[in-house]
Amino acid sequence: MQDAERDQTWDQAVASHELCARAYADAGYDLVELPLADVEIRAAFVLARMGL
């Protein structure tokens, strides 16, 4: 969906995400997707992944 904040179409955004994710993976990063949830759940997820 395009709006005043989003300059990319959905397809462009997906392609951009895939390119960025591939570049990070190729550089040796282990990417982890955040859960689609509210801020508190995401924060708890990140802290748990960090072992905190």
Account of the 3D structure:
- This protein is mostly helical.
- The protein has helices at residues 10-26, 39-49.
- The longest helix has 17 residues, at 10-26.
- It is flat and about 35 Å long.
Secondary-structure blueprint:
Layout: H1 10-26, H2 39-49
Order of helices and strands: HH
Bulk shape: flat
Structural class: mainly alpha
Helix content percent band? 40-55%
Summarize the structure.
This protein is mostly helical. It has two helices and no strands.
Please describe the structure with a list of short key phrases separated by commas or semicolons:
about 50 residues; mainly alpha; 2 helices; flat
